[in-house]
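Hey all, quick one. A colleague (J.T.) asked me to put the calcium ion job into the tracker so the inputs and the structure tokens live in one place instead of scattered across chat threads. No bug as far as I know, just bookkeeping. Sequence used:
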Amino acid sequence: MVKALWVRTGLRPSFFDFPNPPPSIERIPRYRYNDSMKNWITALLLCSFSSALALSWQGEVIYQVMPDRFFDGDPSNNLDVDKAGPRDWHGGDLKGLTSKLEYIKNLGATVVWLTPIYAQPTSKQGGTAGYHGYWPWDFSTVDPHFGTLEDFKTFTAEAHKLGLKVMLDQVVNHFGYGAPQVLSKPDWFHKDGSCAKLGDNEIFCPLSGLPDLAQENPEVSKFLLENNAFWTAQGVDGFRYDAVKHVPLEFMRGLAAQNVKDKLYTLGEVFETSLSSTVKIASFQKAGLNSMFDFPLQNALNNAIMGERSFDAVRIVLEKDEEYAAPDELAIFLDNHDVARFASKSPLLKDDEVNARVVYGIRALLTLRGIPTLWQGTEIAMRGGIDPDNRRDMRFEATWTPAEKAVFEATQEALKVHKASSALSKGTQAVLPVPEFQADDLMLFTRTSSDQKVLVAWNNAAERKSYSLKLAKLPPEFANLKLENPQELFGQDAKVSLKGGYLHLTLPARAATAFDLKGL
Ligand SMILES: [Ca+2]
Ligand SMILES: [Ca+2]
């Protein structure tokens, strides 16, 4: 009976032996001792009910921070800091981040995602320090460079006072290089020599040589779940899970169930950008994570907006939304700490043009379904190539150039527009067909909420351009369209009109626009 329930609801991983009782399935014993048909139905109804009430972060805007590279609020913890070394500690910390929460709120973000703060190796590994936080040596201690657990609690409390949520990065795949546990608990790790026999190399073999945790060992799963409960108890609102494609799906299913119980939002990273990777990315959302990063969309947006390629790949990615359990919950972004800066994509472009493309990219992002996620510095079009050049220290108002200030203000304004528009922040998305000869440069879709419908049009051409689309080729609702001074929400010089059975659009060069379709 119990086994059958687990199988049918997916609540109980099949081969994982969770601690007793597993925290993620505390509710199961309620059904364990009664196998009447009535309770079967109740159980199944409850499961579907809880799924229907899954947490949503639609309407939120995530701001990603790498604390070491954000702001130094406490010089007393600057051990081995070398700001000139791109792979060294730079001195940023939790006190500094706390002091800049007003900045993040003022920009218009609502969630702070901070990269991990665990205690790191005490010396450099392969020429790189643990400033990034992804090499945990001690999973329940804050690295002294970042501060203390009290500093983290203060940060979380101050964020909440400002109405900001906190999402903490969690590593569940590995320990840091040289962690003492590799010697003291050898059974906790997959071995280089034998891992390939266990199945998928990507899951069971070490990632970049990092000590790879054996989640199928009950002690390991217990350790990870208890550690997750420890950070939950510090008052966070959500977790970002690193490198989940290297972790058994069944373990993530159990972890997600624990977080659901605690009403925490979960966001997973599968760093794959190809158009065919959506199936794998979607599998983790189906396993219970609320959100996943939309890397294929990030790649397609970069190629189109910075790389001047066709919008075809963007359309193909969005057509795959049906593969996701909740495409509207996907985290969408232009860049992050693992890819080159969005502003670095076309080194041959002039500075002003790069800045204009970043504003175009940010506006485009804010018209799409999903939860916009901004990496620190993208709001000032910060430059930088691949890791570690993409992790330059954040700079604030006092050192901005006029051009950086202008990008910040455009981002801030675009975020206000996004927040004020229920359609842009929470509406369902429908991609509209465009004729093949216009498809390279024209992207057209609607976003619809209960009280607003917005027509989104992106023009990727290098010049101001007019497009005419047959109403008969658009969805039937367009036949009833009446345009009464349609407003372009981002305040750009763009026009939309109806004449002779056509929808006419005139759009600025390389711009993402959005019209409030009153009357549709
Ligand atoms: Ca410091
Ligand atoms: Ca692994």
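Adding what we noticed when we looked at it: Residues 1-50 have pLDDT under 50 and may be disordered. DSSP finds 16 helices and 18 strands in the chain.
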